[in-house]
């Protein structure tokens, strides 16, 4: 378990778009005042050295760090309307040394609050962080149609799909929930838009992300569950599962190293 001073993160869910319900200045001022009063009560003399910021972060809901003698407490707008007892637990989690059992309980309560208000924590994936699905080597929409028709026929919804603008070293794909009425989004690492990447591997990555559309991330026993047993069993039903795993282990690192070399030469 993380210590009370580590950032608390709920990466499966996205921060809200600009929404007056959560960014009303009166609400934020009142929430900041309440947080400072709690800090003063629980850690006397600390509040004057704390800078409280409300964020629209895409993954981290609460974080605390110190820089140049100032303690920065960054809290998602969602918590501006949290109940008083939860804000007190939040301050305890960030500013006090609590027992592991208490830390687990507080962290679970914070995550439960985010889950309860999930629809208010979603925002659209930034356009400047993705590229159109038709790449130089593969058309992702065609790949997704083929995978869906062959392996996920029961899927009722159709997510958008795009290449990432940034090339990642390890993350090959990601399923991103979107706020209604927009479709969810699958982003695939642009590193794979390469003619040397076999189609069966790209199809496996898309298949994995479509399973997230079929079996969304959920909460169970105080934890986020990304890949339940049913997910893993279904994933192994992909005809080229083991072949795709081997190809990834043997080739992705080399592809990324070559990309880094090309980029350095270009600079």
Provide a descriptive summary of the structure in words.
It is a single chain. The protein has a 4-stranded mixed sheet, with helices on one face. Mean pLDDT is 86; it is low at 1-23. By secondary structure, it is of the alpha+beta class. A hairpin with an 8-residue loop joins strand 7 and strand 8. It is built from 8 helices and 10 strands. The protein has helices at residues 20-23, 25-42, 84-95, 100-116, 140-151, 199-214, 229-235, 241-266, and strands spanning 8-9, 50-55, 60-67, 70-76, 130-131, 160-164, 173-176, 185-188, 218-220, 223-225.
What distinguishing features does this structure have?
elongated, disordered N terminus, about 270 residues, 10 strands, four-stranded mixed sheet, alpha+beta
User: How many individual β-strands?
Assistant: 10
Uncertain residue segments: 1-23
Could you tell me the radius of gyration in angstroms? 22 Å
Strand content: 15-25%
Distance between the termini: 42 Å
What about the largest sheet?
A: 4 strands, mixed
Structural class: alpha+beta
Strand order of the largest sheet: 1-3-4-2
